[in-house]
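User: I'm putting together notes for a lab meeting next week and I want to include a structural view of one of the chains we've been expressing. I don't have a solved structure, so I'd like a prediction I can at least talk through. The sequence is below, exactly as it appears in our construct file.
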Amino acid sequence: MRKKQARIAQRITALVAAAVMSVGLFTGCSGKEAQPGPAGENNSQTGTDTEAASLFNETGMPIVNEPVTLKVLIETSPLYPISSELWYFKQMEELTGIRWEIECVDNDQWKERKSLIFASQDLPDIIIATPQNFDTGDIITYAGAKQLIPLNELLDKYAPNYMGLLGKYPESRKLYAPDGNMYGLNGTFAGGNLDTLGARCFLNTAWLQKAGLDMPQTYEEFYEALVAMRDGDLDGNGVDDTIPLSGTNNQYSVDPFVAGPLGIPFTSVASRWMTEGDKIVYVPASDIYVEYLKRMKQLFDEKLLDQEYFTQNEEQLRAKGAAIQLGAYSYSAHFVMTGSTDPEVYGQYEVINPLTSEFNEEKVWYGDAVRMPNIFITSANKYPEATIRYFDYAFSDEGSRLFTGPDYGEWEGEGGLKWNEDHTQCEYVTPEGYNGMWDYLCKEISPLAVEFQGNSQYGDVWGSMQYAPEDTSFKSQMKERIAPYLKQEFPQLFFTIEEREEVALVLDEIKNYTAQMEVKFITGEEPIENHARFVETLNSMGLERLTELYQAAYERYLQNG
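Assistant: Thanks for the context. Below is the predicted structure for the 561-residue chain, given as structure tokens.
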């Protein structure tokens, strides 16, 4: 087996000439060297168990002398469940000696499962979740309960690849909690990654052409396009079945089309916060939010917005997309939504430009250049050193190359990377039976459907890759139309333990009340004229004090950079 390990590592090293140290997914540049935060109480958990220590190799492969199994809890989409039988995990197990025993939890069941494991102390060894569903409040709470371990010393001693990235991009200091400890890892490093550009929004330009309209540049032009889609039978089927604008009222929100032109960060309508100068503002209590409600209500009342928007799930949305009923939507990719890699089908949809309005004349696209951790090691883990080395390998040249999958012919499905003669460029060959490269990679090769992607998309392999036509079509449009206007959305913030206790008393109640009222305002159950009364209620629930706490956390965030 060791001969095969060596052969794999040698082949990978030959293919990847140099490390790509791209801007971290949680990072930007601030001009200072990043250093580990000050050591706090119990600053790291190192293996004191004699058996665990005897298995561990500080350098080289395998990482452990005897097979080790780690229990891993992963939040993911039901569309792409993750298994230890994926090609990537099999290769990693063979190289490192570490096997993952994976429990996948659907996005909509995550909160309940998360609460249960921490309350019962039945913890996995590793937790991987989106920052939205394992936020800074969770980090502070569970770190305070000693259920998440600080990683400072472990990273400094056993993670040269990862720490090299953190040192190169000093804004990663924002990963530190108020006590100076780092409790999680970021699963990807961003740089030129298109994922940092945030939402991917598509518009049926074939229908626009039939209506004699150009790609909209303003919200007013976008509204005109929606009206044409509603009234013009642009699909030519003689049936009144087109839906001008659709999505889901959570992950695939229409906010980029409506909130963005008003200057409201897309996620802030959901996470509820934005900045005005150096001040924190709760979006639903602001004047601009009233205009947002008016526009959403108009779209809903005029049946320009899907009447099932507030109730449908992703599966129902995709069914409408596959039937080519949608004029505009936000989703991961047009060919996934349409369920087709035929350019005559997915090519109807193009990436929309950032829209302006009478309230905001600046073209802005809110993205995700700085993010919070999404990989955590729990106190139940008997092998923290080995675990850190496992992840550090994922950020090496060799580990990054593994994440892109096998060369053509090395996988039973005859898929993989197909290189030119001098190994300077490659393309994916997708096996029959898969809906494009993404479908193949997620189902057979690597856990692309979660935010653990090593450093693969920034390596020489990924950079030289000739994407499949369906992938290239929208990625080139995003690079041209969206990337020049990228602006950092409102960040997640760390609170102190004392602040967190105060926040927890009112935050969920305020968010739930806001979400309920927002639907009522938009559907007409509650008059928008009652917004002032709504704000009064928020203040009575503790909004003013909550804003003070967010302000303090935001000022620390700025100072950390």
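A couple of points you could mention at the meeting. Residues 1-48 have pLDDT under 50 and may be disordered. The longest strand covers residues 68-76.

User: Perfect, that's what I needed.
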